[in-house]
Task: inverse folding
């Protein structure tokens, strides 16, 4: 017998259980990080890896993303099937922390084994980790499975 989905009555969206949120995070490698900047809110696409407890990404020293340590942010991944009009979204809230190679050389070595290679050219040698607090997900639901 399958698990009965929980529907958020205020939005009509299915709440994705935590374990499935993690599975969905592991299923892709591109997400978006939303940061508050002096110029207002900004959203940056980043490639990332889930290391078992945190979203790990790399950034160029001096960049807005690299300077996000300690600032509240939102990270989002999603997927959709336009034909079926079905989609999902997983959101992590938290504060990124920089992994200092001098203070945490073993952690950096472990992260380097993740084979996380930035898609954008340039030096991206600043490692950041975002431990989600919380990690939540939602998906669209179709009444009676009819797509209407």
Result:
């Amino acid at each position: 017998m399958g698990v009965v989905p929980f529907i958020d009555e205020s939005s009509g969206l299915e709440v994705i259980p935590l374990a499935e949120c993690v599975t969905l995070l592991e299923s892709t490698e591109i997400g978006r990080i939303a940061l508050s900047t002096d110029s207002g809110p900004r959203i940056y696409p980043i490639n990332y890896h889930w290391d078992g407890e945190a979203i790990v990404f790399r950034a160029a020293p001096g960049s807005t993303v690299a300077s996000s340590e300690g600032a509240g942010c939102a990270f989002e991944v999603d997927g959709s099937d336009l034909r079926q009009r079905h989609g999902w979204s997983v959101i992590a809230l938290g504060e990124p922390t920089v992994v200092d190679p001098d203070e945490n050389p073993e952690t950096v070595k472990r992260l380097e084994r993740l084979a996380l290679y930035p898609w954008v050219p340039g030096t991206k040698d600043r490692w950041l980790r975002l431990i989600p607090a919380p990690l939540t997900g939602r998906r669209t639901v179709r009444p009676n499975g009819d797509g209407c």
Notes: The chain has a mean pLDDT of 88. Residues 20-140 form a domain with the Pnp Oxidase; Chain A fold (CATH 2.30.110.10). The chain has one domain: 20-140. DSSP finds two helices and ten strands in the chain.
